[in-house]
Write a structure and sequence with these properties.
- Keywords: Mitochondrion, Transferase, Transit peptide.
- It comes from Collybia nuda.
- GO terms for molecular function: 2-methylcitrate synthase activity.
- The chain starts with 7 loop residues before the first helix and ends in a 7-residue tail after the last strand.
- It is mostly helical.
- The protein has 24 helices and 7 strands.
Length: 599
Amino acid sequence: MPGQWKDPRVAFFEQLNDVVDTWSWGAGLSERTGKYCEMFLIIRCIGSELFDTSYASSLKARPRIDPSFLMHSISNRLAEAIERRIPSRVKFATELLAKYGKISVYDMTVENVMRGMCGLPSVLWEVSQTNEYGVKYHGKTLEQLDEILPKWPSSSQISPEAVIWFLFTATVPSAEELHDLAADLCDRMQLPDEVIAFCDGLSQDIPCCDQTILVLAVLSRHSKLSAAVELNTPKQQLWRFALEDALDLMARLVSISGRIFMNKFREGQACNITPSRSADLAQNLASMLGRTEDVQFIELIRLYLALHMDHGANASAHTMRLCSSAWTDPYMTASAGLVAGIGALHAGAISRSIRFQENIVSTLRLSASNEQIKAYVVKRLEKHKVIPGFGHALLAHRDPRLSFIERFILQSNLEKGVQGRVAMTQKVNVIVPPLLTSYVPSMRNTAPNVDSMSGTVICSYNIPADFVLQFMTCSRGFGFMTQFVWDKGSIFVPTALGVPLERPKSITMDELMVLVKSQGSITKLPSLLRGCKGCARDSRALYVDSGGGATEDSETRVLFSISKNWAGVLCIIYSSPKDEYGGQPSSTGVLAIQPWTIF
């Protein structure tokens, strides 16, 4: 009826088909992909008045991608370094499947299935290996990388660009290659106009991470890889478009973070700062946060970006790998990873740790004695409350990343206010572990992890707690994008487009009981290399005979394990005193590697 009120959301839905059709055609994407992206935004933003006429018009006005402009000014040095490594990895994958394709790799237990697959080596990983002692990037610990990787001029911290190069190529970049990559990333930092309009239009009561999730979703239609797939680009060339997207995303994460910060905490001031080609990622991000001259803060950003790039197949990384295996574009992939990352049991623990430290300070003040802190913690433990920032799902020892932050504190001339909060956190980190051992005897690792200090130190530089996770978002996005590129192109599984679709088999408790009574079956190595299709479990221990040699006879096998804390241990037959993975040979003639991801 004329004059009848109509919910504006209903009106928007009525216009949706036209908008989606225009979007899908303009971006060179399929209708299904376009609708998925659009629906993602609607679900997250409904009721926030974001989808007005001007926004719909900006979508309709988007020009079609010209295939000749799909490639940017890609760093030839980086692309050539990756291309040189591809043949050896393809050869290794071919040999692994050909020689050991029928060998069982792990005995699955009911406990493994029912406890979140924790510790199961079910995700093939190229860039890192993780175990109870920490992470290694291509066989190198963070301490070793700190020694061998080049630093940015006048910096004493690990260079994020150097780590990115190393993850991509497993080689140490020269100073020239380091600056070349930094300049290339700088050139990619500009956000499209409609993305800027969308970001600036977001309500500032939306948390920073949620804003990032939304902006990444809007950016998805700019994926060069998706456009290349739609244009039937030869499979052998697709990794180059994946690299294009990866570098674009890395650079744009910095711009998105800076823009969200200025919109939310500085009322939009200086949102359009032009990044400098002579600066690195940390310097440009600091400038976008209004801290151009704060050398100490820039050093802290460098450290944080370098420390958090990869930690194996944790919740955020595995989420991104799962999306990537379905050929989801990298922007939506990163968005999904961030959704997993903000969970309280993952990176969200940083926010919980910040609140815990703030509660101690507000309750006891910075001058609190050790006995007062101990009494406060005991009171929480007696109420069965969690003490965030301690222990780890994988690590059985002190988090090595924490040592880097502690070293930064010692080397830096912190301001008085900063010193007080940091000193309080350091006190807590000494007092809490013995209490956890007494009150939570089932906790195998009571040492502080990187979350216990990282958030507090950043906040001490007047960074709002709501923004702290953005540094983690950028860093983990950088790291996974290196894996994303290696997942594309015929790398792990020759004759296929990278790593195949993940499709583990779901299983009920009733089916588990049937398997138990029939003694079940064992996952084979091909299942691990082929995306777990039809497989209820994946793991990582090669069976060897009693003499330590490889055997394909599943009836005569010995499974080695290191300790009762490991569900299983990867054993790789060695032919030399030391293996390329950095492990030490045991007396049984096998190498013990990490209990999580495998490559």
